[in-house]
Design goal:
single chain; 70 residues; mainly alpha; flat; transmembrane helix; transmembrane; TMEM86B-like; membrane
């Protein structure tokens, strides 16, 4: 339980940092980084759902889509 909570906290902090950096600079490169971090957060959320509910084709498609886009 503790490693999962730590992993979630690290990902959330990375997303928060990317968002703050994007708001302060506004460059196109930082926009790409912010989108990438958002996709990683979606990916990790979907992976958590898959682990708790079991595998499904729809979740696998969403996982692979967000993984390749990120």
């Amino acid at each position: 339980m503790i490693p999962v909570a730590l992993y979630i906290a690290i990902i959330e902090q990375m997303a928060r940092g990317a968002g703050e950096f994007w708001m302060s600079s506004g460059s196109q490169t930082v926009t790409y980084v912010s989108v990438d971090v958002s996709l990683l957060m979606i990916l990790n959320t979907v992976l958590a759902f898959e682990r708790s509910r079991g595998p499904s084709k729809a979740l696998a498609l969403l996982i692979m889509t967000t993984y390749f886009c990120a």
